[in-house]
């Protein structure tokens, strides 16, 4: 198996250097690495030695282009192996879109604990021609989930990657062609506070996160790339996007969340019953450099069903999941 930037599938690479890794079951004597853009050979490296981790930094990347890396290894006793994998570039960190938000601001830190509903954004796209390819590059600060036509696109939890947003911001890129329909498509981004809009509590009794982190209101920047038979199109986040209030009435990375289940249908918290859509507000966003993410995501691995539901009164329930998990013992759900 050949890994590219420590990934083996759905690989997006938007900046150099590129880390290529493989392993053999015999002593390696030499190797060669070929990089193809389509059928065109754009890079060739041949070396002696047993290195199985190599950095590529002399390739000229083009946006929205597919590349293939092929590694041929040779052993002391005539052994040979061929490893091959592919990656795709997106916008190389150059966004056409703007940072957009719902325009919520706290005038006083104490207002944070009173809670507010989270922000959900949408963009409606109409298509009347056959689509050959489609990708979205996106950042949602603090956390986000992405849906297209009611289906979740994001594969991880607690996106976006936490960094010093004043220095670097990691964006994600997804192949969205399988989610696109004709003629109408609805792109939905559900936002949460995450690390970008933390509570004014003191970590370790000393550090007020709102004073030590780069903070702001939840916001999005995105580019949607679409390729057709005779043209390409990029739809960036702009003033034409819309937002409404979501189903979460409070959310915080340390203090948990409150979800009003009367506000949405089924299991999709963005399928809101009475959304009041308004135009988004353009924002300056944090100052960090936009770089494609290569960090492994936090994944949902287990769902627990309720063992018993204790009815406290007509509005309050205690749900017992019947087991102890690390940092999860019992959920108390308030239906408000």
Automatic annotation (TrEMBL):
<dbReference type="Pfam" id="PF08531">
    <property type="entry name" value="Bac_rhamnosid_N"/>
</dbReference>
<dbReference type="InterPro" id="IPR016007">
    <property type="entry name" value="Alpha_rhamnosid"/>
</dbReference>
<dbReference type="InterPro" id="IPR013737">
    <property type="entry name" value="Bac_rhamnosid_N"/>
</dbReference>
<feature type="domain" description="Bacterial alpha-L-rhamnosidase N-terminal">
    <location>
        <begin position="133"/>
        <end position="298"/>
    </location>
</feature>
<protein>
    <submittedName>
        <fullName>Alpha-L-rhamnosidase family</fullName>
    </submittedName>
</protein>
């Amino acid at each position: 198996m050949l890994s590219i930037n420590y990934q083996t599938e759905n690989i997006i690479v938007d900046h150099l250097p590129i880390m290529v890794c493989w392993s053999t079951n015999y002593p390696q004597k030499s190797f060669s690495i070929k990089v193809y853009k389509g059928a065109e050979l754009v890079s060739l490296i041949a070396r002696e030695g047993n290195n199985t981790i190599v950095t590529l930094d002399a390739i000229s990347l083009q946006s929205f282009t597919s590349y293939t890396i092929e590694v041929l290894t040779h052993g002391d006793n005539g052994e040979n192996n061929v490893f091959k994998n592919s990656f795709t570039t997106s916008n190389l960190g150059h966004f056409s879109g703007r940072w957009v938000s719902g325009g919520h601001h706290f005038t006083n830190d104490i207002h944070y604990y009173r809670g507010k509903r989270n922000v959900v954004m949408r963009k409606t796209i109409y298509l009347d021609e056959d689509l050959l390819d489609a990708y979205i590059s996106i950042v949602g600060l603090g956390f986000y989930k992405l849906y297209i036509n009611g289906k979740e696109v994001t594969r991880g939890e607690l996106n976006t990657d936490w960094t010093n947003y004043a220095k670097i911001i990691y964006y994600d890129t997804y192949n969205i062609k399988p989610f696109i329909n004709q003629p109408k498509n609805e792109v939905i981004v559900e936002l949460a506070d995450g690390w970008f809009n933390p509570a004014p509590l003191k970590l370790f009794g000393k550090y007020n996160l709102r004073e030590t982190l780069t903070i702001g209101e939840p916001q999005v920047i995105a580019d949607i790339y679409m390729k057709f038979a005779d043209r390409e199109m990029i739809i960036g986040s702009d003033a034409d996007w819309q937002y409404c209030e979501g189903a979460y009435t409070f959310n915080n990375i340390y203090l948990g969340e409150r979800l009003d289940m009367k506000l949405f249908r089924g299991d999709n918290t963005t399928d809101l019953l009475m959304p009041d859509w308004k135009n988004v507000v353009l924002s300056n966003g944090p100052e960090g450099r936009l770089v494609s993410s290569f960090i492994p995501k936090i994944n949902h691995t287990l769902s627990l069903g309720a063992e018993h539901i204790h009815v406290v009164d007509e509005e309050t329930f205690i749900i017992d999941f019947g087991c102890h998990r690390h940092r999860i013992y019992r959920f108390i759900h308030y239906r408000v």
